[in-house]
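Retry 2 of 3 after timeout on previous attempt. Resubmitting structure tokens to design endpoint.
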């Protein structure tokens, strides 16, 4: 399978080089540029699978690049990077056509998780509808979950949470990422709701004495993997 093509537009050379190196280690084919004008030229000449754009860039900022890309009919996923934390800035980015928004400084694992999530969402319907970790299976289209032959009845929130974790088997997903994906950006991350839902998932997936598949990494987040 060909490597997924990712465009990085970031005027801070240290951030640009760090992100490029990490993505290349993950087997992405990366094109890196340092301003908005170069980003627009790259988007015009290459069909990328994902664009990662800094908001504050010379010649054309990330919002302008995003708006122009959408105006041109470029429908690839776009992730904006910014040092601005105000809700209004986030809204402006999403209104410009961005699919996600990551505030600097960020943890590189979260950047990778968001890139993977955006790339999955851009796949044709049904391309990854069946997720499997050991004997635990989840069908994103029918919203059915099984542990071996046993059907597991989940609420919408329980299903969405399990699906998020199963999309990245063995990868620890941070509490912050989960709260934003499942409940929204403004959800209080100190809330115990996530712990409660993790407990529900464990109870239902281990109901017949099966081995644990939903694990806690204390102080970091959660992951789904085979015991």
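Retry 2 succeeded. Sequence:
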């Amino acid at each position: 399978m060909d490597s997924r093509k990712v465009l990085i537009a970031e005027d801070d050379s240290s951030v640009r080089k760090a992100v490029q190196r990490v993505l290349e280690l993950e087997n992405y084919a990366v094109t890196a540029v340092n301003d908005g004008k170069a980003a627009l030229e790259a988007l015009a000449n290459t069909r990328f699978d994902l664009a990662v754009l800094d908001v504050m860039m010379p010649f054309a900022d990330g919002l302008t690049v995003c708006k122009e890309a959408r105006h041109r009919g470029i429908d690839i996923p776009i992730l904006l990077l910014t040092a601005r934390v105000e809700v209004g800035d986030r809204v402006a980015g999403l209104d410009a056509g961005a699919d996600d928004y990551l505030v600097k400084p960020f943890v590189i694992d979260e950047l990778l998780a968001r890139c993977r999530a955006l790339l999955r969402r851009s796949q044709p319907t049904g391309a990854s509808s069946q997720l499997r970790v050991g004997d635990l299976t989840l069908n994103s289209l029918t919203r059915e979950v099984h542990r071996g032959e046993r059907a597991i009845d989940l609420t919408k929130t329980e299903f969405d949470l399990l699906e998020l974790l199963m999309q990245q088997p063995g990868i620890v997903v941070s509490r912050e990422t989960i709260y934003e994906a499942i409940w929204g950006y403004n959800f209080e991350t100190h809330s115990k709701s996530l712990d409660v839902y993790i407990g529900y998932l464990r109870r239902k997936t281990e109901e017949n004495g099966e081995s644990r598949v939903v694990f806690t990494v204390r102080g970091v987040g959660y992951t789904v993997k085979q015991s």
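Attempt log closed. The domain at 130-224 is CATH 1.10.10.10 (Arc Repressor Mutant, subunit A).
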